[in-house]
Every structure is written in C-alpha cells, then in structure tokens.
Amino acid sequence: MTVVTDTVTDTDVVSRSVSRNRLVLRRFLSQRLAVAGVVVVLLLIALAYLGPIFYPWKYDQLDFQAFQSPPSPAHWFGTYQTGGDVFARTLRGLQKSLVIGLLGALFSTALAAAAGAFAGYFRGATDTVVRVVTDLMLVLPGFLIIAIFSSALRDGSWLLFIVLLAGFQWMITARVVRGLTQSLREREFVQAARFMGVPGWKIILRHILPNMASLLIIDATVGVSSIILAEVGLSFFGFGVQPPDVSLGTLIADGAGAALTNWWQFDFVAGVLVLLVLAVNLVGDGLRDALDPNSEIEGAK
Amino acid sequence: MGKFLLHRVGYLVLLAMVATVVAYLLAATQLHPRSRYEGRNPAPAEAVVDQRLTELNMNDKTPLVERFGTWAKGVAHGDLGKTVDGESVNTEMSRRMWVSLRLMLIGSILGTLLGVVAGAYGAIKQRKWSDQTLTVISFVLLSVPTVVLAVLVKNAGIWFNQVSGNESTPLLFTTGEITPGMDTWSWAGIGDRVGHLVLPTIVLAIGVNGFAFYSRYQRNSMLDVLGSDFLRTAQAKGLRRWSALTRHGLRTALIPMATFFSYQFALLFVGATFTEKIFGWHGMGEYFVDSITKNDTNSTAGVTLFVAVLVLIAGLLSDVVYAALDPRVRAS
Amino acid sequence: MVAPVPAPGPAGSRESDGVEPLLRVEDLSVTFRSGAGPVTAVRGISYDVRPGEVLGIVGESGSGKSVSSLAVMGLLPGTATITGSATFQGRQLLGLGDKQISRIRGSRLAMVFQDPLSALTPVYTVGDQIAETIRVHQGLRRDAARERAIELLDLVGIPNPRQRSKSFPHEFSGGMRQRVMIAMAIANDPALIIADEPTTALDVTIQAQILEVLQTAREVTGAAIIMITHDLGVIAGFADRMMVMYAGRVVESGVVETVYQQPRMPYTMGLLGSIPRLDAGERQALTPIEGVPPSMVSLPVGCPFAPRCPMRIDSCEQTEPALLGVVSDDAGHLAACHRSEEIARDGLTNTDVFVATTVPEAPPAARLPREQRPVVLEVRDLVKEYPLTTGGLLRRKAGSLQAVAGVSFDIREGETLGLVGESGCGKTTTIMEILELAKPTSGTIAVLGKDTAAMSGKERFAIRRDLQVVFQDPMASLDPRLPVSDILAEPMITHGVPAAERDRRIRDLLRLVGLRPEHADRYPAKFSGGQRQRIGIARALALEPKVLVLDEPVSALDVSIQAGVINLLDRLKAELGLSYLFVAHDLSVVRHIADRVAVMYLGRIVEIGTADQVFENPTHPYTQALLSAIPLPDPVKERSRRRILLTGDLPSAANPPSGCRFRTRCSTFAHQLDDDRRRRCLDESPELTGAETTGEDHEVACHYPAPAAVI
C-alpha cells in the first residue's frame, strides 16, 4: 500500500490555510460600497470621539451671543434656541448612539446564539421553553414595553435601555440559529463528536457556534443599525435616552419641530444618522456577500 | 386536522393572555396616573383624586392584586376598562383601528407591490445598472428612519403648497385625515380625504416597511430561485427565458414572502406610530404613544391585547397563505 | 458570450460511414470565470451522435461531462464563455438567440436531469408541467394537452395516470419523478434526448426501472440518447458507443465492447480495474489510481493524467496527446495517449499497468472458526419506533412508525458484516441505535458483551472507546473549522489521553492511514475526498477501538479514489484485528469487503449468511432482484443477463403490508403462487430460517424460498 499524497508541497500549507480568510477579505474588498461603508463608519467613530477634543464648544455649553443662529465658522452646525451648539451635541449624540448600537447588537446576537443553539441541540424541554419565550416576546409589542420602562430610565440607566432594546431584537435570529443547529446537529462531524462522548455544551461551543460564525457576524452588523433606529424611534417620543444624556434620537426629536424654519437643527443630525445607518447596512450587506455567497434569506420564518 | 387547529389556536390565545397580563402588571407598576393631577393649579384635593383614580381602577393606594382582579374580571367580560380620561378603552380602540386602516391600506399595498416588482426585476438584472440603481435607492430608504422620512415628506408638502401658491387652500394637507366640518360623503369630502392621504401614503409606501423592505427581500428570494434546477428544466422544455422566469421563478420566489404579506396585512389595524403622530391622525399608532405619555394603565394593557391578537392572527394567516402558495406545506 | 468559430472541418480521424450525424460537436470549449482565475471546464471536445444511437459519456466529477452537454443545450449561465461548434440537424446551436433555441429545446432536443426533485417546479402539478411542454411547442388547447400528458404518464409507467397527474412533485418518489422527467422529455417526440446522470440519485432497483423506461422512450420516439454517467455498469448495458472524459477532454472513445475489452488509455484501464465487481468470485485486489484529478484552474502543460499515470514518460509531461485512432483496433476506437499504440501492440491489461495490491492475510484471530471467536456486537430483535406526532406545542402521538422491526445479527471478532439494503430499509436507523448506546424501543444491543440498556452513564462513556464510527460524507464528517490535529485529538482529549502521547499518536495515525504527519496542521478543506475519508478513519481509530461502524464509507467518493480507501480498510482490519459493521447500498463494494452479509428490506433482515452464499446462491426474491438490478461493468455479460424488475416503490414503514413485508413487490408472490399459497404470505410474517437451504451459515425469511443465480 503506497501512501497517497497530492502534489501540494509543504510550503503551500501556510498559504492555503489562511486562504479562506483571505478569500473572504478579497470578496469583501471587491465591493466598493461595502468598503465605503467601513470607511464611513470608522470616520464617524473617529469624529464622535476625537471631534469634541478639537471643537471649541462642549455639548452642554450655551453661547449667549448666538441663540438660534444658522451655521457659521463659530458654530459649524448652528445653534439651538438656548444657544447650545448643534455640532457639539451631534457628536455627543453620535457617541451614545454608537455605544447603544454596538452593545445592543452584541447582546442581542449573543442571546440569540445561546437560546437558539441550546434549543436546537438539546430539543425536548429546553426547546419548548425557548420556543414559548420566543413566541411570547414576539407577541409583546416591544415598543410599548420599553416605553413603559421609560420612567425607570429617567434615573440615567442607559445600560438597562440597551438590555431592553436587545431583549426585543433576538427572537427571529434565535429561530434561525435553532433551525441551523438542528441541521448541524445531524451533520456527521457533530455526530462523530457525540459518539465519542463529548458533552453537549462543549459540542455547541466547539462545533456548532463556530460553524455559524458568518450568520452571527452578519446578524450583529445588521443588528447595529436596527438598534440605532429603534433608539431613534423611542427617543423621539421621549421613551428612550433621557436628559441630560443626548443621543441622535433625542436630537432628532428636538429638531423635528423646527425643521422647516431652523433647518440646521434637524437636517444635520438627520444626515449624520442616515449616513451612519446606511454605512452599517452596506457593511452588513458586503459581509453577507463575502462570508456567505449562497446565503438563505434571513428572517424568513 | 381540526383538532390540530384547535390546539394551535388554544396555545395562541394563551400567549395573548399572558402577554396582556404581563403588560398590565408592568404598566400598573411603572406608570403613575396620579402624576397627572400633581401639577395642576389649583391642586385638587387628594380625596377627589383618590376617588377619581378608584373609579378608573388606577388608584395606586389600592393593592395591585385588587386592581388586577377588578381589571381581569372586566376583561373576562369583554370590558377593557376606562382610559385616564374616563372613556371606554373598547370604544376608543374600535374607533381608532379604522382610522389606522384608512391611513395605511393604500400605502401598504402600493409599497408591497412596488417592492415585489422592483425586487424581482433587480434580481433578474443582477449586477446590471438598473439593479444597482434600485439597490442603492432601497438601501438609502432603508437607512432613513420613518421619523426623519415623515418629517421630510411633511415639510416637502408644506413647501409644495407654498410654491404652488395655494397656502390657504392647500392641495396636500399635512394634518389629520379630513378637514373638520367637511362632509365625508360629498365629492368635495372625498377629494379632501385624498388630499390628506397623499403625503402619509408616500411615507408608508417608500419607507422601511414598504418599498425599501420588500424590494430587498424579494430580490434575495428571487436570487435564490434563479439558480434552481427547475428554472433550467423550464428552459430545457422550451420556455422562453422571460416566461420561465415569471411563470416558474417569480411564482416560487413569492413563497418565502408569505410571512411578510400576512403580517403586513394583519398589522394594518395596528397603525403606524410615527406617521400618525407626525401627520396628526388619531389612529391606533397614536394611541400607543398616548397611553404611555398619559400614564394610562388600562389603555396600555388594551393596546397590548389588541396587538397580540393581531400578531397571532397574522401568524395563522401566514400559515394559510403559505399553504395557498406552496403545495408542499399543504400536504403536511 | 457565445462565439462560434468557423467549423474546422471534420477531424481526419473520425469515421465517416455515410450517415449524416444528428449532432456534431466540434472543438467545444467552455470557460468559467472564478475567483481563482478562469476555469476551462471543457477543453476542445468533438463528437458525433448518429440518429437513434446511444452515446455514453463517462467521467468522474469535474471531468466536464455535464458542462459540455449543458453548453450544447444553451443552458449554461451567462458567465460561461463557449467556443467551438455544435450542429444539430444541420443547424448551428451555439450563438442562437433565446427565441430560436427555445423552439428547438424541448421539442427536437430534450433533456433529463439528475435530481428530479429540484428539477421539477414545486408549485405546479406534474400533469400541468408536462402539458406546458406540449403547449409551448404544439400550441394545443389546455385540455387537449392535459389528455396527452396523461397518456405520456401512462407510457412511462405511472399507475393511475389520470389521478396522479394532479399530484405535485413532492408527492412522488424519486423514481416516479424521474419518470415524469422522461415523460416531459419525450412529449414532443425529440430526435435527441440528453440524460444527465438520470439514475445517480436513485436506488439500484429503481435505477433498473428507469433504464427500462428510457429504453421504452427510445423505442417509442426513435430518439438518439446521450447518456452521461459515472457508472461504468450503466454504460455497459445501455450505450452503443462511449467516450471517457478526464479533465475536460475526451481521453478515449469507441464502441462500448471495444473500450471495455481493449482499453488503450491508462485512465480508462485504471477506472475499469478500480471498480469492485459483483461477478468476481474470490476477493480480487482492487487497483486504485494514485493521486487526485488535477485542479482545473492550473492544469499542467502535458497530459493531465500524467501525474497519476504509472506509464508516464517524459513526453507526457511536455505535450498533451491528441485523441487519435489506434492503428491496430477497429476504426472509431480513439485514445488520447502517447503510448496507446504500445498498449495495443503488447496487449497490456490493467494489472500490467497498475500495481495490484495483494489482499492482506486475515489476522490470527479471524483464522479461528467463527464459533470459537468472541461476539463483539450482538443485536437481538431490535425494534426502533418513531412516534408520528401532530405539531403544536404539546406534541400528541398520532401513531408510530417502525423504522426497524425486529432485527437480529451478531458480529464476531475479526469479521466484517455487510448490512445492505436500499434507502428506507432501516439500515441507518439500525446503526444509529447501536451508536447511541441507549435502550432501544425493544430488543437488546450488546457491545462486547455489555447490554446497552443496563449500562450506567460511566460504562456507556467507557464503551465508546471500543465502538467508533466512520461516516459517509467526508465533507460533512470533519469540522471544517478545525485543523486535522485538533480533529484527531478530540476523541483522545475526551477520553483523557495525556497531551504528550496525543501528539505522538496523531503522527502515527496519519501514517497508518496513508497520510503524512505534516498534514496535521492543515484544514480539512485542503484535502481531497479520499484523503478526508482517511482522516475520518484515523479519527475513528484514535482510541484503538475494537468495532468500527462504517456507514457507506466510500459511496461519496469517485471510483478511482474509492478503491484506495477500500484497500486501506482491508489492510487495517488485518493489521489491527478490527471488526466491521459495514453499511452500504452498493453491493459490489460489500461483495468485496464483507465476510457475511445481511440484506434488509423495510425494517427486517430478509436474508443473512456468508458473502459467498448470499451472492452466489441468493434465495430471497428481494435479494435476487437487488443483485440482478446491479449493472455489471462488462458489456457482454451485462447484455445477456436476465433482470428481475421490482414493481412500484417501497411501501411506507408507517403502514407496512400485512404478513410478508415484501409481498407487494414480490415476483414469486405475483406470478408463481396460487391463492392458497399466497394466503400464507398475506397472513404470516416469515422468520429467518436456514432449514430449507443447504448452506450452513445462510438464513432466509421467505415462505417459498427458491435459490437462483442472478449474476
């Protein structure tokens, strides 16, 4: 019996083992819009955190020389009725919205992965419990429930707000994860692990979740934009981020009434918001094409 | 089959009940109807406030269990209680749901149709300029929050009225669903309604729940079908590309959309919070927000029940639509 | 995308016997764009199809055999660049517009695809789909087309065609769906039918039925057929002429008998020698072709087969040989090999060219008589029931399905039991029950003498060391995200093998299965199918088990690769004294590897005994039908065989027939028994008995057994 080897020499080993990552990267970089999305997101993050260092006005500072003034070299985005600087507040709001979006998406995806994978792998009672909870959460109007908590949020606990946002976002993904887990569970490499005696939780961590990494990455990215949008909606009615904190949502709410007369109080914030969400969506779409060229439609039940 | 359906409906009813109870308990503990009377001048006597709140079953001095019992008893008899203003929640909702329907019907249908057509067309023309243009448009629209879109459309309407020189007798109205005092059933009344409907309809049709959403999903679903073997078979037996794509491709690509169609349809009654608020329509969406801002416990619970029931109906509807579209589901 | 080049005139070597070819393909090339660069899947092939003949195209996956036909049909995606020429009935097909090609497709030129489930539109009834084909070309009215569709369904052997025409594709079995595809293909009386692996997804008995239907279709329409397949047995029985493809080229072509008897290209020779054969009495050694087919992205300059060819000489690596006639053979036998004249002159055969491995000697333990060896796995009256439930939150039992209905066998040390049967027979359920090590619905499973029902969790964990599994699909059985070293270490970590020993053992294991220790750092995606299967085997051996369950371990591999893995399994068993439970649907492979064979049908074992007994003296009518359905890769034998065709499909296990489960498809029951004797089959389920037969280790579950040689 001779040894069967292919013609690959050992120098190829390293280059080929990173080839998947490289291929994904190349596929991603070939999409101009997605790359633009990454650049815009990075620029916005830099702007949000570095901008305030260089900009003379602070978000809680009032300029009593300039009430309701249009954009000028002194106040790039103009000022509010009280003399607050629109640009400084926009940066401040951008910071908060970014944090809310990123953390919220992380929570929600982690929750979805855990719930879906355990339900799909262990089936039986675990599955039933997760299913009932998922169904119940889908039936509850998230907007209303979070709004009920708005008075509790007044104590400044925006972390609770993020948990609430994430808590109403994970269900559909959990269902997708559950379905994928069920099919992965029957895959032979998982069965092989089971038949050698590897415990269930270890199989989930080692074999199941890593094999849906693409789905989870994409879900988290798309989750960022939907959490940011949810925050805007809630804050618009005063149910979200509470003063003295500002977010893009509260700024939109502040500016909406004046949008026709004092356009700078609305248009700039709205522009930054749309730009951020658009950029994140483009990144998500680019990731989907790069990681998962034959992906199923996500979210379809 | 009948037994199975009964079983499922039972489960759904249970879910709706639990959701409503959860909402009631949260609202009853987190909302403070008493605060409505606190800022008043002259301050009403505490006894008067207590009496008023007790009438509404919202007195925080009554133990929660007792309040819940009273409310639950009412709900069991089909009475969802009173709003903070002393109206019946039932009456309020049965009036508002039709307002929401009138607002949303045309916009939703328009948005869905446009989205499906654009999505399927984009998939067929994948990577051509027409697809890329559609993709960019839908991406931008998907990134504009309804709040921002509604404000922009509203302002565009006001601007249009200004330029067209009929600010006093506008063609496009930005508030409400009909000019007060107008007779609904006259030609003028219908025209007036249409004038009120144009702007919010635009928002609903092109926004994140309309065109933007459906064009993305329909495109994905169509792309999945485009690579499938049966399309190849259809062409192999002599169908022209276009008829293979529509007769076999689009027909099959509509199946995954069943869920979205059903939810869209059932939730027409739930209304559109942002659009209603910004264009001043007094539908269910507005009620959502008002029930919280007015610290209205019973309305909050009522709205939750209403939404829960509609979501569940949507779920059942989606099963039916699935079965109608897909014979594979019908069998099982 | 299509750029037809001016026809270069018929190749000089091609025979011209005066008959105008129906389809003439000349210098056809197909190139796809890919991330890694352009891939030329078909590289300048030329062939003729004459009216009414059957041309077989054989090749392994990636050889370009399907792509070339799709190119002719104009069904390749727009990303493909097609050059060359394809003249059908005097008309150039390449470069035709959608409108013109649509008139030809489905009327004069029809196609049958491999997977009939995905190839039929799920939302329309089969009757409507056939009627559509007719209406597109003949402009018939809707009801007239429907009537014609029903006639066609009847023609292809669908019972109750009127009623069944209203069914949807998912309500049909695989074989039935393929019949529908054929009905669709012949609906407009085509001159040429291209059948692309029409039986690959089907069980052998169903394959035999479908080949029969294709034969009927051919007789009815008089159409020529291009039969694309990887199965040399199918070609042997069905085709008049054949061509062998490798790496996008035709490497050998000619009349079927000639190619099988005097292959002149080493690849063809290797292919024929690497198939385990049902008709080989004693164990023959298989001759695997070393290495793997080349990547189509970066083909070597010379002959693409050279790296794997034992006969290669320097010129093989410099110039690619042209497809030329072999001087000493009959006209029309072409081969693309620099040394084909030599092969013809010296009359070289497979064993002269390829190194035949010797069949390893049995380990000492296995040389003892069977009764004296210890039982390592014992299954008694195993029953596995699945509850049929209604959906909803609280699942309710609506009935039950017996996937396994009382199965008994044992495996003794050092022996291989082949468990065979078609899909749905319960063989997979049986091994899953064994591997779960749980208490079965009823009956007992004992591994190394320990009853699984009575095991504690600890014992169960411990026994997993001795019972390991190798799965069918080498793509799916290795976690793509882990390097090979981690994959091999997993069982050892789980069972507490110290780290230092693990590393040593991983190296040993890789060597043992014919890989190199350096391979440990690579990811599964870097290996070919055969190599991956070797890794799967190495993982199964990591804990030095006593029993290996092999679930279709070679059925996902190409034939040229299959032989190497089978030889490895043979060797490991001899060296390590393993016992195998070998599950397969391919009886030829089982014939080669198994000591004893159990044949399953609908949850029961119908025949069990030594391999020689079962294969040479099959006694159960099902075993006989199964064996007779397997095509032999030998045109002479294949064409003279009598085939026992089974009627219909496998009954549902949820509602099995009363009495003997096989009686609904049994030809003995249908044709040879009178009503009195039938009663017994209807009422009484036959038990396995050996009394009626002469063999010692041979039991059959049939009331009226009658041995018959069918190979």
UniProtKB/TrEMBL annotation, chain A:
<dbReference type="GO" id="GO:0055085">
    <property type="term" value="P:transmembrane transport"/>
</dbReference>
<comment type="similarity">
    <text>Belongs to the binding-protein-dependent transport system permease family. OppBC subfamily.</text>
</comment>
<dbReference type="Pfam" id="PF00528">
    <property type="entry name" value="BPD_transp_1"/>
</dbReference>
<feature type="transmembrane region" description="Helical">
    <location>
        <begin position="215"/>
        <end position="239"/>
    </location>
</feature>
<feature type="domain" description="ABC transmembrane type-1">
    <location>
        <begin position="94"/>
        <end position="284"/>
    </location>
</feature>
<keyword id="KW-1003">Cell membrane</keyword>
<dbReference type="InterPro" id="IPR025966">
    <property type="entry name" value="OppC_N"/>
</dbReference>
<keyword id="KW-0813">Transport</keyword>
<keyword id="KW-0997">Cell inner membrane</keyword>
<keyword id="KW-1133">Transmembrane helix</keyword>
<keyword id="KW-0812">Transmembrane</keyword>
<keyword id="KW-0653">Protein transport</keyword>
<dbReference type="GO" id="GO:0005886">
    <property type="term" value="C:plasma membrane"/>
</dbReference>
<dbReference type="InterPro" id="IPR035906">
    <property type="entry name" value="MetI-like_sf"/>
</dbReference>
<protein>
    <recommendedName>
        <fullName>Oligopeptide transport system permease protein OppC</fullName>
    </recommendedName>
</protein>
<feature type="transmembrane region" description="Helical">
    <location>
        <begin position="129"/>
        <end position="152"/>
    </location>
</feature>
<feature type="transmembrane region" description="Helical">
    <location>
        <begin position="263"/>
        <end position="283"/>
    </location>
</feature>
<dbReference type="Pfam" id="PF12911">
    <property type="entry name" value="OppC_N"/>
</dbReference>
<dbReference type="GO" id="GO:0015833">
    <property type="term" value="P:peptide transport"/>
</dbReference>
<dbReference type="InterPro" id="IPR000515">
    <property type="entry name" value="MetI-like"/>
</dbReference>
<feature type="transmembrane region" description="Helical">
    <location>
        <begin position="158"/>
        <end position="177"/>
    </location>
</feature>
<dbReference type="InterPro" id="IPR050366">
    <property type="entry name" value="BP-dependent_transpt_permease"/>
</dbReference>
From TrEMBL, chain B:
<feature type="domain" description="ABC transmembrane type-1">
    <location>
        <begin position="97"/>
        <end position="322"/>
    </location>
</feature>
<comment type="similarity">
    <text>Belongs to the binding-protein-dependent transport system permease family.</text>
</comment>
<keyword id="KW-0472">Membrane</keyword>
<feature type="transmembrane region" description="Helical">
    <location>
        <begin position="194"/>
        <end position="214"/>
    </location>
</feature>
<feature type="transmembrane region" description="Helical">
    <location>
        <begin position="103"/>
        <end position="124"/>
    </location>
</feature>
<dbReference type="Pfam" id="PF00528">
    <property type="entry name" value="BPD_transp_1"/>
</dbReference>
<feature type="transmembrane region" description="Helical">
    <location>
        <begin position="136"/>
        <end position="160"/>
    </location>
</feature>
<keyword id="KW-0813">Transport</keyword>
<keyword id="KW-1133">Transmembrane helix</keyword>
<dbReference type="InterPro" id="IPR035906">
    <property type="entry name" value="MetI-like_sf"/>
</dbReference>
<feature type="transmembrane region" description="Helical">
    <location>
        <begin position="250"/>
        <end position="274"/>
    </location>
</feature>
<keyword id="KW-0812">Transmembrane</keyword>
<dbReference type="InterPro" id="IPR000515">
    <property type="entry name" value="MetI-like"/>
</dbReference>
<keyword id="KW-1003">Cell membrane</keyword>
<feature type="transmembrane region" description="Helical">
    <location>
        <begin position="303"/>
        <end position="325"/>
    </location>
</feature>
<protein>
    <submittedName>
        <fullName>Peptide ABC transporter permease</fullName>
    </submittedName>
</protein>
<feature type="transmembrane region" description="Helical">
    <location>
        <begin position="9"/>
        <end position="27"/>
    </location>
</feature>
